[in-house]
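Hello,

Our lab assistant flagged a job as stuck in the queue for most of the afternoon. It eventually completed. Since we weren't sure the result was trustworthy after the delay, we are filing this so someone can double-check. Below is the sequence as submitted and the structure that was eventually returned. Let us know if re-running is recommended.
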Amino acid sequence: MLRKTLFISGVLLSLALVAVPAFAQTTAVAPTVPTITSTTTTSTMATKIACVGAAVATREAALDAAVTTHETAVNNAYATRATELAGAYSNTTMATLKVGVKTAWADFTKSVKTAATVWRTSRNAAWTTFRASTKTCKAPTGVSDSANSVSEVSGS
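-- returned structure --
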């Protein structure tokens, strides 16, 4: 009888050793991690990013147009200066040469200064419009690239 009891005890112990880990594995519940961002918050952030992206695209288009205008004005200033200097050096007297050269360089300087003023005004308007547009987006400051505005060409 003692043998039978020991045998049953051994069998029960063996089953317990096999069943407990198996039971623990099947009944263990993985901890759930709550999600911090809901779908609504994610879609709202995506909308804000898209809004800033549209404002950036508008700003860049305005800056591109302003750069093209500036480049054209500077090219015209150089072409006009070349023409005026050619005319000045076609003179036969020193007095008319000096007047022609002085006029050519004065006109050039005035044209380049005007081009620079137009560029700065256009550049500043593009950035002002951009900043106003991004305020309506209500996006976090990290979404915007405004900090890079100091890298903009001066245009002088």
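-- support follow-up --
The delay was a queue issue, not a problem with the job. The result is valid. Confidence is low (pLDDT under 50) at residues 1-39. Residues 42-139 form one domain.
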